[in-house]
Amino acid sequence: MNAPSQGRRALLLVNPNARNGSAPLDAIRAALVEGGITPFEPPGEGDCTALIKRHARECDLVILGGGDGTMNAAAPALVETRLPLGILPLGTANDLARSLNLPTDPVAAAQLITTEEARPADLGWVNGHYFFNVASIGFSAELAGDLTAESKKTWGTLGYAIAAIRVLRRVRPFTVILEHDGIREKVTTIQVSVGNGRHYGGGMTVEETARVDDGKLDFYSLEVAHWWRLLALLPALRKGTQGRAADVRAFSTTEIVVRTRRPRQVNTDGELTTVTPAHFKVVPGILRIFAPDPATLPPMIAGVPIPFPFGTKA
Question: Which position among 116, 142, 207, 271 bears the catalytic label?
C-alpha cells in the first residue's frame, strides 16, 4: 500500500438514483480529506459526462459514486480527459468494483482511493460504445429492457430474478454469424456475451481467469436446447467455468463481429446502447482506476448469488 499523495483535487459526483445513493457523504468527504484529497462537488445536477468534461482542468481525478451504469455513462468523458477514476460502489450489483476487489463499504472505498495507485484498465468497445464488464445479445438484452430502476431499488438483486422469470416465457433461440481470428462460424444460441472484466449480473463470472487489464475479450454463447438447461449451468456461470460445457461455446479474442438476420439490441453494462451487426474490440489500458495491485488478488473473487445469470443495469 502506498503513502497518501497530498494536495490532489477530486471531482466528486454521486448518482442520487443509485440503489445506495444516500451514502454517508460527510464520512466519505472526511476520509478523502484525511487522505490528502480535496473533493469538489459542482452545484446542481447534470449529465456526468458533461460535468467531467466541463471541470476536467480543475481536478486531478474523478470520483464516481454509483453502480456499473454510472461508470458506463462516464466512460467516454474519462477516455477523453484521461483523468484517473476512483469508484464508490453504490449500485445494486457493483460488478466492476468486485472485479477490482474494491471494498463494498463506500467510506472504505474512499480511503482506498487515497492510498492506492491508479492502475491501467481495459475497456470493451462495440459500435462506438464503451463497456467495462460485459456486452450481450439475446436473453440479457431483453432482460435489461424489462428491468426497471424502480424494481432494482426496491428488490436489489432479487429484482433480476423477477424480471428474468418474465423474460424466460418468451425467449427463443436465434442464429448468429461470428467472425473472429480469421474464422467465420454460424451458431444457434439464446445469448452471446462478450466480456471485458470478470463479473457481471450481480454474481456471474464471464471467465474464471478474466481481468480488466488482461488485454482480451472473453466470449461465450449459450447454445442450449431448452431454457431449463440454464439452471444446470448456473453454478458454472457463477464460477466462470461455463466454457467447459458441451452446449456453451467459449473463447478469448481481441476483436469479433456478431451478425444476426435482423437487428438485435446489444446490452452494454446493463444499458441498451446499439444493435447488430455488432463489432466488438478491446481497448487495452485506456483508463486508470484506483484499485489494489492485481498481483495481490486471489485467483477468483467469490460473487454474490442471484437466481439468474444475466447482466442488467446498476
Answer: 271
